[in-house]
Every structure is written in C-alpha cells, then in structure tokens.
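Encode chain A's predicted structure.
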Amino acid sequence: MPLLTKNTFQKVKGFTLIEVMVALLIVAIALAALSMALGQAVYQQGSIENRVVATWVAQNRMIEIQQAQETGSKIEKTSDVLMANRQWQTKLSLEPTLVPDIQKAKLQVFLKGEKHPSATLWSVLGHE
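Encoded structure for chain A:
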C-alpha cells in the first residue's frame, strides 16, 4: 500500500466540509428571501383583485341608485351583492347639499365580514 506523502494531499482537489456548508447556507438564505417575496406578491395580487371587484360593485350599485332616483333628507341603506363568487355588502349614505334637489352620495363596499371598506365611491345625485 503506497504511503501518502505531503505532495499527495496537495494534489487532491475539491471542497472542504466548511465550504460546502457555507454555500448551502447562502443558498438557503436566498431561497427564503425568494419565498417571502413570492408570498408578498401573491398577497398583493389578491388585495388588488378585491379592490377592483369592489370598485365594479360600487359603480354598478351607484348606477342603480341614480336610475331609481332615491331622495330624502338623509338616507342610510345597506344591501348585499354577489359578484365574482364573493359576498359584498354596500352601505349608501345620502345627504342633502346647499343646492336644492342635489344630494351627496357616499357608497362604501365591504367584503362580507370586513370592517374596512374595499372601495368608496362618491357621487352627486339630482333630478333632471
């Protein structure tokens, strides 16, 4: 059996255990950061989708209100709407303005069970 000399060890090429562990640590940190970024992107996508659909609900509901020409000194109404397989709740507030026969309308749209509105739409209603 040949004896290993000092020169034989110097010719052996490869990575030490410490070098491999450091490389794995760097890869693990990079993958964790990538995973967090992807999770945040998915969350933002869902949030944007909710706001867009809530805006559609608000616009549709405001058109219904304008066509019905609801009037009164001060009105607050809530209604439920189903859109994009989600249950939405709308809250309408009508208040008189200084101009006769003109009302200020504030329509808030909530995802069912949420406390903060996903969209708010303001409009002015009056008789033609």
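The chain is about 45% helix and 30% strand.
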